[in-house]
Every structure is written in structure tokens, then in C-alpha cells.
Amino acid sequence: MNLKELGIALILITVLIIPHASADWSSVKVVNSITGKVVYPGDTVEFAITVGKGYNNSEEAWCALTIRSIPEGWTAGFYNDGDQITHVTFPKDKKTEKEVILRIKTPKNASNDAYSIWTDFKPDDGDIILRDFVVTIDNNAQPNLDMYCNIPGLETRPNDHVEFEVTLENKYDHRVSIDLNTTNILQDWNVEFFQVDNGEYRVTKVSVAANDKQDFIVKVRPSINASDGTYPIIVNAVLENSQTGISQQLDVTINTGIEISKMLTLFPNIKDITLNPGASKEIMVNLRNSGDKTLNNVELKVQDVSGISTSIRSFGPIDELEPGESGRIPVTITARADASPGEKEILMRAVSDEAQSEDDCLKITVVKSSSSGFIGIGMVILAVLVFIIIIYKFGRR
Amino acid sequence: MSEKKKNKKTRTTNVLVIAQKEFADIIASPFFLILTATYTLIVFTFSYRSVLLGQYSGVESILMSAFSNITKQVGWLAPLIGITLGFDTVIRERKSGSLNVLLTHPVFRDNIILGKLLGITSILALVICFSMMVSLGTILIASGVQVGEMEFIRIVVFTIITFFYVLIFAGIAILLSVIASDAADSLIYNVAIWLLVCIVSGAVIIAIAAIITGQSYPFDLASKLINISPLHYYSEATAGRIDLSWGGINNEPVNAGIFDVRFTLSQWFNEFWTEVLVLIVTPITLMIISFMAFLKKDITL
After folding, report:
1. From the CA of A266, how many Å to the nearest CA of chain B?
2. Chain B closest CA to A222's CA: distance in Å?
3. Are A278 and B61 in contact (CB < 8 Å)?
4. What is the bridge-based pairing of β-strands A205-208 and A176-183?
5. Are both A25-137 and A145-254 of the same fold?
6. Residue B144 and residue A341: Cβ atoms within 8 Å?
7. Homologous superfamily of A25-137 in CATH?
8. Would the CB atoms of B133 and A397 count as touching at under 8 Å?
């Protein structure tokens, strides 16, 4: 055999062998950088995997994704855009890649150890690509959360509420649901969580996207009997269906000496009126929002006093009072006919959902009409006199 | 002075003398004082109670509201004064024989009946005015409630309306006194009329209307039939209501009568002038009938 024939034979042998000798050749490729993580029992852990077309770009390619082996009691699956997937397909003539998430749910009772999860990526053409992911269970692992408040200490008066804006950060690479609660609450104190956008809805749980933040309001109303001092409020953020969580301490300082925030004020146009029994007088009471936020459901409350009846002539509370805005409410004060003479005081107060005013006093002096007394006496005397005169003049037989 | 004028003067004098005699007879009676005191007490008690309790009956003034609350009691009980004064005014004189003696003097029958009518009317006016003034004065002294000119005028108008209303029953009593043969009979007839008119008129009329129409609450027919009752006109003028009798027809008035300060006196008069007219004309009519009946009556024993 001459050299030429030998060379052709060698070439043919090489061409036939090389494709079979190359065990990694595949229509798809699988790339992932992180293959192991440490988690708390019960956590869900995710691994990001990039699946793309292999060397053959002109043909359509697909790949089946399976879990080859997983510890007992664990669950895992492949996800893309929130959907669980079993295959990925790549169109022909295009070199594309897809982000696939391997999501592994660890059992709550998993003991501390390193666990392997084997996955298969079976392309339509080529060898199966095997990948191993290691999940290490550690009871002492810290949850990947962070909670902080830019202003964790506020000062107020008893029964005046304060609000803390707290931020909860999810450092996991998957969405988590977190329960909110408080501990270390004293008697007659009230702590509630509210949404930041509108303070109407109370919050008990938040869901935070991967590597995202969520703000919420912690509203603390101290007891009316709270004495001066600093009171810690512990806010806990606990992973759903878990006991793992983080805490943030908020300090509320009670100071009875600080001035009342005069958000809501009232001004009656008359502070001193004199009435006869049975008489009435109408006064106008001006309610003003002196604060810097809108007050809702503003209404006037008037104390009941013996002998005096009051009638607030309005169509119910004022729905909203903007900062600087005033509302006028007519009030009819009537002294009952049986009211004893003398001075009486009526206390009035403006209340709203957010604040209430200081009490204002209206003095009412009930004076029995002297003219009525004289008229009454005169009438009785006149009637008796006329009666007697008529009887004397015409009543004799 | 001409003969005619002289006779006229004599007649007038006779009427006045008889009126004065009638007046004196009633005044001297202790029964009259009891009657006056009782009626005064009724008016004062109910009105003062309303003032104390602050019972506002749809009108804003407390004093007006207090008197508004007594229209029912006055409507029921005041006619008894008229009945008491007139039920035996003629019969008593006839039975005692003094009427015959009187007629032997140059006194005509018309003088006698006119004198009696005048005497009773005077007594009635005295009793009603006295009780109203004493009640009002005592309320003013006790409560110190201020009374304005408008309120005073309304109370005066109410007093006048009450006077004419009671005068109707006095006229009925005098008429029955002329017609009846016995004082007891006259009293019974008067009491029966009083019960029928003041107490149960509404209930009776509703029953009659229900029988006629077959409806359970025949408001339309009943409100027409009630027009025969003097109480209807009194309640309209003073309280704006169709009826004040027991179990009578109910309505929610727009104008609550003389004490409703939301309407002026002119507005009140525009609405209720027919009722006032009926109250004035009816006793006059009854007295005319009594007059004519007495003139024709055989008064021999």
C-alpha cells in the first residue's frame, strides 16, 4: 500500500472516530456559576442556569430538563418566568439562550448536612449533560433578610400616636412572604402595621420580590396612662411557614411635658351668652385645621349640662378639612324653662379621625326675666282685682 | 224724651237688671267659685307642666308650646262650664215660680231671656278670662319665661276662641233649659251632648263612616261628617287638627293653629277664618233659637 492510500485511510478513520470520541458534544449547552448554597431548613433555594444552543445554530434544538436524584422529602423543579417547565426549545437559525431556575424546596425537618441534587439536561442531539447542585442545611444560618428604620426613635405624649417607616429587604434571589408581628407590647398600648401608600389598610404579611424592598408603617399609640420614659417596641419579620426571621427595635419616648400639637382648633363666635328660661340663641363655632395634614370626619362635640339643651345644626361631620381650612357649624343653645338661674358652662371639643382639639368653654348665664316676673304678678293682681270689683259691683243681690 | 225712646231705655234697663240678677245669683253660689277654681287649676296645671317638661309640640316658642298642649284638655272640659251655667237657668225660675212673679212686673219675656243670656255670657267671659290670666301670670312668675307681644296676642285670641266655643255649649244648655220640663232631664241631655260632641264624636263618626263605606279607616267621609261637631272647629282653629276627641281622626297639620309661630296671625286667620266664623255664629244662633223658644213656651206651673 503506498503512502497516499495510507493517508486517506487515516483521514477516514479520524473523521469517523472524532464525533464519537467527543463525549461533550451536544445541540445545547448548560452554564451555571453557582452550584452550592447554604440555607435554613424549610427554605426554598434557587439556582440560576443558562441553557443555550450549542454549536449547531442552523437547526432547531431542544432540551429536556429532569431531576435525576433528590433527597427524600425534598422537592425540586425547573422554572422559567414563574412557570414550571420540562423542556426548552430553540428555533433554528437563531442562537438563543434561556434563563432557567432550578427551585429546590427543603423540608423543615431537614437535619444539618450537605445534600446533592442531580439534574439531567437531555438535548435532542448529543449526550446528556449532568449537573450537580449541593444544598447545605444549617440551622444556624441567618435568613437573607434585612429590616431597618431610618428614624427608630420618636417622642410623643400619652395617647398621641407616632408612626415609624420601616423598610424590609429581601436578599434572597426568590420572592418571599413575610409575617409581621410585634413583641414586648405593654398593656393598653396599640401597635399596628399599615401600608405606606394609603394608611387605611392594616398589614399582617408582606410579599417581597427577590432582591427587592418593601416599606410599611408601624403605628404606635401609647397608653393614655403611660408615664415618662422610653419604651422599646420589637417588630418581627418572620418568613412564612417558618420560625426564621429578623427583628427591629423601635423606641417610643413618652414625654408628658411636650406641647399638644394643635392641629385642630375651635373658635366659637360668642363665649358668653345670657338667656332667659325658654329662650334660645344661635352661635357659630369655627373649626379650623391648623396642622399640615388633612383631617377626616371632623365634628363638633358639645357637653350636656343640666337645664341647657344644645342642637348642632349640621348635616353630620365634615368629611375632610384641608390644612388651613375652616368649617363653620351653627349651634343652638336653649335654656330650658325649668333651668335654675345662674352661670353654667358648656364644654365643646372638635374631634376628627386624626386629632382632637382642646376643650373650649362657653359660659351661659340663665337669668329669669324680671320683666316676665313683673308682668306675671301684674296679670295675677289685675285678674284678681277685676274679679273682686266685678263681684262687688254686680254680684250683690 | 219720646215715648219710643223711653220704652227702649226701660227695656234696656230691664235686661241689664235681669242680667245683673242672674250674674249675682251665680256669683253668690259657692258652686261657681269651685267651678272657677277647678277650671283655673286645669289650665294652669297642664300648661305649667308643659313648660317644665319642655314639651315642644312642633312650635318653637316654649310658652306657645305650653298653651298648645292644653287645647285638648280645654276642648274636653271647658264646655262643662257652659253646661253648668245654663242647664237650669230657666227651669229653676219656672219651677220656683219666680218667673211668673217676674212677669207680673212690667218685664217682658224677651227682656228676661235676653237678661239671662247676657248674665250667663258675662259670667262665662269672666271665668275664662280670669283663669287664663291667672294661669299665664303664674307661669311667668314661676318659670321666668319671657312673653313677647306676639305671644300675648295669640293667648288673647285663644281665650276669645275658647269663650265662643264654651258659649256654644252654654247656648245648648240654655235652649235645653227652655225646652226641658225638668232640671234633671236638662242636665242629662246636656251631659249626653257633651259626651257625644267632645269625648266620643270622632270614634262615633269613624264607626258610622266605616259602616257606610265599608273601609276600615274611612278618612274622607269621616272628615266630612266631623263638620257637625263644634269641637272640630275649635280644634282646627287652636291646634290645626281635625279632631281632638278620644279615638278621633288624626292628621298631621301643616299649620298647627293659633300657637304655631311659624305662621303670622294674618296667615292663621286666612286659613281658619271659616272655623272662627262658625264658632262665633253658632252660639248666637243657639241663643236666638233659645230666645224664640222661650217666647213661645208655656211657663205656667
Report:
1. 29
2. 44
3. yes
4. antiparallel
5. yes
6. yes
7. CFA/I fimbrial subunit E, pilin domain (2.60.40.2040)
8. no
Which residues in chain A are closer than 8 Å to B144, comparing Cβ atoms? 276-277, 341, 367-369, 372-373
Residue numbers of the domain that contains B50: 3-296
Q: Which of B24, B136, B143 sits opposite A277 (nearest CB)?
A: B143
Cell of A64: 429536556
What pairs with residue A318 in β-bridges? Answer: A298
pTM for the full predicted model: 0.58
Q: Which residue of A has its CA nearest to B17?
A: A394
Average of per-residue pLDDT across A255-279? 78
Which of B60, B143, B147 to probe by mutation at the A interface, max A CB count within 10 Å?
B143
User: Angle at Cα B95 formed by Cα B90 and Cα B97, nearest 5°?
Assistant: 95
- CATH hierarchy code of domain A145-254: 2.60.40.2310
The predicted-structure confidence for B38-74, as pLDDT tens digits, reads as follows: 888 888 888 888 777 765 544 457 788 888 888 888 9
For the cut 60, the answer to whether the pLDDT of residue B301 exceeds it is no
Which residue, chain included where needed, has cell 396599640?
A: A190
Name the grid cell of B114. Answer: 235676653
What CA dihedral angle connects A258, A259, A260 and A264, to 10 degrees?
A: -160
- Chain B residue with the nearest C-alpha to that of A338: B52
Q: Give the ipTM.
A: 0.81
Q: Which of A309, A367, A380 sits opposite B134 (nearest CB)?
A: A380
Tell me the residue type at A146. Answer: D
In a domain, B19, yes or no: yes
**B247 part of a folded domain:** yes
Q: Quick check: A396 pLDDT over 80?
A: no
Tell me if A46 sits within 8 A of A174, measured CB to CB. yes
pLDDT for position B299: 66
Q: Does A209 touch chain B (CB under 8 A)?
A: no
Residue-wise pLDDT for B98-129, tens only, equals 777 777 777 778 888 889 999 999 999 999 99
CB of A73 within 8 Å of any CB in chain B?
A: no
- Residue B170 near residue B26 (C-beta atoms within 8 A): no
Contacting residues for A214 by C-beta, under 8 A, at least 6 apart: A167, A168, A170, A206, A207, A208
Q: Which residue has the cell 253648668?
A: B84
The Cα A39–Cα B93 span in angstroms is 124
B136: contact with A, CB 8 A cutoff: yes
Separation between Cα atoms, residue A365 and residue A179, nearest integer Å: 59
Band (A96; pLDDT cuts 50, 70, 90): confident
Q: Structurally, how many domains does chain B consist of?
A: 1
Distance CA(A135)–CA(A44), nearest Å, equals: 10
Can you tell me which residue has the cell 211668673? B100
Examine residue B301 and state whether it is found in any structural domain, yes or no. Answer: no
Can you read off the three cell numbers belonging to residue A297?
Answer: 370626619
pLDDT digits (tens, 9 = 90+) for A333-360: 988 877 788 899 999 999 988 888 888 8
Domain-by-domain residue ranges, chain A? 25-137, 145-254, 264-370
Q: Are A84 and A75 in contact, with CB atoms under 8 Å apart?
A: no
Residues 6+ apart with CB under 8 A from B207: none
B106 to chain A, any CB pair closer than 8 A? The answer is: no
Is B116 part of any domain?
yes
Beta carbons of A394 and B130 less than 8 Å apart: no
**pLDDT per residue as tens digits for the range B139-166:** 888 877 878 888 899 999 999 999 999 9
Q: Do A337 and B51 touch (CB under 8 A)?
A: yes
Residue B216: C-alpha distances to residues B211, B220, B246 (Å): 9, 12, 18
**What architecture (CATH level 2) is domain A264-370?**
Sandwich (2.60)
Which set of grid coordinates corresponds to residue B43? Answer: 289650665
Residue of A nearest to B147 (CA): A372
**Min Cα separation B234/chain A (Å):** 25
